[in-house]
Structure formats: structure tokens, C-alpha cells
Amino acid sequence: MRVLWITVAVVGIDQATKWLVLQMMHRHQSIPLIGEWLRFTFTENPGMAFGIQFGPPGTVALLAVLATGLVVYYIMQVRNMYWPYRASLAFILGGAIGNIIDRVFYGWWLGYGELFQGRVVDFIHVSLWQGLVHPGVPLIGGSYMELFPIWNVADMAIVCGVVGVLVFHNAFYEEMIAQEEAQEADRTESTPEATEPEATPEAEQSTRARTSTSASTSTPSRSPSEADDTDAASGRLSA
Q1: 12: Cβ–Cβ under 8 A, 6 or more apart, which residues?
Q2: Which residues are designated catalytic?
């Protein structure tokens, strides 16, 4: 499928930028690009989004692999459907694979862990807001937060893909229903109509015999007295 070239491009760009960061920056180094609003800040995330972790080491990586497998299966199911919707799924798949490579292989490649124990490389630091959360906010009240957290090209692709799915899902379902109706119409047209069997000579003879029999039985026979009355009436008329 051509749409998978989007996935390949996302994975390639994501891994290339991460390789450059690993080669040219040290951990926690920050390079300002547009003041404090946009920076390159090298961090590593061992967990999920926002650094959330749970389970033993490797759990997050394994779940990510399973979820990506489901995305691949779904893309195969809709491979002939609405292209913008499939392109959005391809962005999601590319971002998922890009981060899976980090989680599965980076610990082993970089020498700080085993397979499935790697950390995702993040470096795009967009600071929309930073400060203390109001104390009345449950769970995070009074803590220091910054929006957005540091992310990477794979994260950006996933976000773009999710937005695309939300935007194009109505058109996707409309096209899917239209295709199903067209297929149903084709099946209806291709079904041969029931035709009457051709009449054979034997059937024609049987039909004629039944017709003549019914005609003979429908003609009433006259009794002798009725015949005499009829003849007498005819004689009087002739006289």
C-alpha cells in the first residue's frame, strides 16, 4: 500500500533526528531556538506519555508492540478505503514504530539496559506555559508544570494522525457505507432472474388434452323429454 510510505518516512525522520541528538548533545542539555518558547532539550523517557510508568521493566514496550500490531491489522482491514483517513493511520503507525525502536533496542544499543528496557529520546521542547498549578486542582495542585512536555518527531506524528482520524472519520464512514451499498447492488444485479421452462411437445399435448376435456364437461347434455319439447316447439313455429 502506498500509504505506508508515510509510515516509512516518519520512522526515518524520527530515527535520524534522534541519532543526531545522541551524537551532538549530552543528556539534559538545552539549546534555545526561539527564546524560552522553543528549545532543543535532550531528555530520555523510560515510560509512557508524561513519563508514566507501571509494571516491571519492559511492560510499556511490550504493550506498545501489541498496540502497534492492532494498528497494523486495522490498516490492512481498511486498505481500500478513504485515503486521508488511511494516511492519518499511517502517521500514527509511523510514530508508534519510531518510539518502539527506542524502547526495544536503545537500552541494548547504548549499553545501559537489555532488550525492551530502552528509553525514548525526546528533544523538542515547546514551552507554552510553565508555573505552579493552583492548589485546588486534584492530584497535581501546587506542583510545578510545563506545557507541553518535551517530545519528538514520533510523538508529533501520532498527534497529527489522531487529529486526522478525528477530522476524516465521518467521510470515511460515509464512503464505507457507499461501498457496501454498491456491492449489495452488484450482487442483486448479478443474481439471475427465475425464467419459465420451455414447453415440450409432451406438455403441449397434455395441455390440449386437459383443455378439450374441460370443454366437453362444461357443455350440458339434454334429456329426451327436453329434446321432444324442443322438437314440438319447432313444429308449431313452422306451422
Answers
A1: none
A2: 122, 155
The yes-or-no verdict on residue 32 having pLDDT over 70 is yes
Distance CA 43, CA 151 (A): 9
How is the chain split among helix, strand and coil, in percent rounded to 5? 60, 10, 30
Strand partners, 147: 129
**The pTM is what?**
0.73
Other CB atoms within 10 Å distance of the CB of residue 222 = 9
Half-sphere exposure of 64 (CA within 13 A, CB side): 29
Buried/exposed 55-80: b ≥16 CB within 10 Å, e otherwise: eeebebbeebeeebeebeeebeeeee
User: Can you give the pLDDT at residue 202?
Assistant: 61
DSSP string, 60-72: HHHHHHHHHHHHH
How far CA 105 is from CA of 148, 162, 181, in Å, comes to 26, 26, 47
Q: Whole-angstrom distance between the N-terminal and C-terminal Cα of the chain? A: 107
* CB-count exposure of residue 161 (10 Å: 0-12, 13-18, 19+): buried
The DSSP secondary structure of 177-202, one letter per residue, reads: HHHHHHHHHHHHHHSPPP-PPPPPHH
Higher pLDDT, 51 or 98: 98
CA distance 29 to 41: 6
Query: Of 58, 215, 38, 47, whose CA–CA distance to 127 is shortest?
Result: 38
Short-list 57, 21, 23, 61, CA closest to 40: 21
Q: Give the closest residue to 40 by CA, choosing from 58, 49, 27, 57.
A: 27
Distance of CA 227 to the CA centre of its chain: 90
Phi, psi of 35 (to 5 degrees): 60, -140
